[in-house]
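Appendix B, record 7
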Amino acid sequence: MRFEGIYTPLITPYHTDFTLNEAALAETVDHLVAAGVHGIIVAGTTGEYYAQSMEERIDMMRRSRSLIGDRVPMIVGTGAIRTEDSILFAQAAKEVGADALLIATPPYAYPTGREIALHALAVDRAANLPVMLYNYPGRMSVNMDEECLDRLGRSPNFCAIKESSGDPNRLHMLARDYPHIALSCGMDDQALEFFAWGARSWVCAGSNFAPEAHIALYRACAIDGDFTRGRAIMSAMLPLMRVLEQGGKFIQCIKHGVTLRGIDAGPPRKPLQPLNKDDKRALEEVIRTMNTTIANIPGALS
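Structure tokens (predicted):
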């Protein structure tokens, strides 16, 4: 499988009692497909999988597959502390018709590169689907190092890596030494650099509410090779990226952004709390300014 384009890690909309808002979920999926995203990821961090039971996660897979249909690929996250649980999620994803898996490092355990590879290989054997690896040491505390990548790169199923370390040296190493594992941008404020180094996809939570801007940057850089236009779009997006990453309110901001699009995303699940009024106003102003600026960049939205 070739990962090309914008992949949105889908939110999970909730009612105020934290039950699933099925109507809002359907609206969100339709909104993303209509906007032109190239794939949808279910059970990513943005979807709050860590706050869901196993039954809820599998139900979300089923519902999302039904809503997405065959309009765009569906990738399912298998994140869990225990390898056994990740295997169960991979098997469930296979059963509901997922197109690929997202495999992250098990959190908290601090596994070595060899142990991460053995975990990923066990999950792969359970489903035999294309895999996008997910390297996020900021949350998992360890990198998918060269030993891990060397082991996994021997299998054709491991065809991409969402790189979220924020380390430019990792970006260079992956592009130079592992060209057979496609680069996918997982660090929003480095999207321009990722595209310059050959990335063909971007997993971006902000595309839940601003798919047009994210698609515009992808098209400028990865499709048209117009990095002058890309820099202008990126400059317009950077204030939003700073707001999303500051203050530990990432998921809350994403959900409020979706609500601004007319879809009731609801609150985040505890222990997270919704944005306060000041945070909402700040996010709204940044989004308005970004949209206005990008609309005035020649060719950005055409």
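Remarks on this record: The chain has one domain: 5-295. The first strand starts at residue 5 and ends at 9.
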